[in-house]
């Protein structure tokens, strides 16, 4: 045993002589950190691209006109499973973000749900360069009414419509969930006999209380939405705040927000969560560690794939009753 131990010691000394690991200097560590960050960003970009891709066995009907405001046409892109003509499917409406000032219904992050048995409709709404609030929510409500009115055309079960959005889109889906029947927000873009209510809401890091300044900078986006600061437009700011409309009749909510969000602070989602919980609404709140606005991917937990699994489980439970 002693001999064997000595042999192992000599071998270890020889290994140390042959291979002397270099100490990483600060520059090397920085390079590794940059590479790791780039890998994370690339992985996130690929994940986003996969979400936007149309799943096999599905088709897209592009730029469906769901309503008009004057001569302005409003459009939907609808992704339909091929078997949707055989039986009605639940529908998930996707509403894009972009600070209410940019973005497009062509950025359909929810398209992958079509491969899971959902009709997925991505909504175009008027941006702040074109119209101030409540144009954005009246457009979204018109889209819901259109989908109900034409449910048979797209293989949709009109009693099972959910909404999912991120950032500004998260704000708008939260309003859809909390303002069913609020006449001031219905608008007149078509199908007034139909309901704009939704049966489930998935809100990704959306503003929920526009009556307070969220940050020194973001209120510029809020001011563009309202046509003035919340201080100058207090009633409109209240009308644009989902948290102000919460009641026990609201549909189930899934709220997801990054703890490091510097654009829309997580306190905005905390306010909505507490209000829904107090009202007795079925609500789940997922706090994403190490994630900023838009779920910056480096070290976030849960990971994007896990979050998507939670989203699918949520809609399956609420719209498919699994």
Architecture (CATH level 2) name:
3-Layer(aba) Sandwich
Task: Output the CATH class name.
Answer: Alpha Beta
Oligomerization status of the protein chains: single chain
Number of helices: 9
Distance separating the two termini: 63 Å
Morphology call = globular
Find the CATH superfamily: Alpha/Beta hydrolase fold, catalytic domain
How many domain regions? Answer: 1
Instruction: Tell me the major beta sheet.
Output: 8 strands, mixed
Give a written overview of the molecule.
The chain has helices at 2-18, 26-52, 135-149, 151-154, 168-178, 219-226, 234-239, 266-279, 304-319, and strands spanning 58-69, 72-81, 89-95, 119-123, 156-166, 200-204, 253-258, 283-288. The protein has an eight-stranded mixed sheet with strand order 1-2-4-3-5-6-7-8, with helices on both faces. The protein is globular. It has a single domain (25-319), classed as Rossmann fold, CATH 3.40.50.1820. By secondary structure, it is α/β, with parallel strands linked by helices. The protein has nine helices and eight strands. A hairpin with a 2-residue loop joins strand 1 and strand 2 (72-81). The chain starts with a helix and ends with a helix.
